[in-house]
Amino acid sequence: MTRWPLPAPMTDALAEARTAADMGEVPVGAVVVKDGKVIARAHNAPRTLHDPTAHAEMLAIRRAAELLGNDRLDGCELWVTLEPCAMCAGAIAHARIARLYYGASDAKGGAVEHGARVFEQKQCLHRPEVYSGMGEAEAAELLRDFFHARR
Prior knowledge:
Elements: H1 8-22, E1 29-34, E2 37-43, H2 46-49, H3 56-68, E3 76-82, H4 86-95, E4 99-104, E5 129-132, H5 136-149
Parallel strand pairs: 3-4, 4-5
Antiparallel strand pairs: 1-2, 1-3
Helix pairs in contact: 1-5, 3-4
């Protein structure tokens, strides 16, 4: 586990991930922060909502956009427990998220430092600042425990 306190947004994202796990969803949580304040939060819910796009990032971005009344989330940060997939990375770029913080890397499905590396493509119209590894141990443990219990 982390030897120092995690920033509050990552703590909130981890709480959302735990909620997802309690619901039988893959434990991923996300929060959107604007001006230092959490304005939207979500957890994975594709099974619950019967929606393959209901990833934590997508739901949090949708909620933030609705709250702000704008499809552009200028000046916002996204804190998520797992490296975003290609779909979510695309949404992050389209929403113009300023900074992305994520916990655990995802060598299999991630698309930021793995796979498609969406933000490195010349076709990517917006590249957020990316910070990885914050809350990594906690996020990875949640995922390990979740999948171990299902094997």
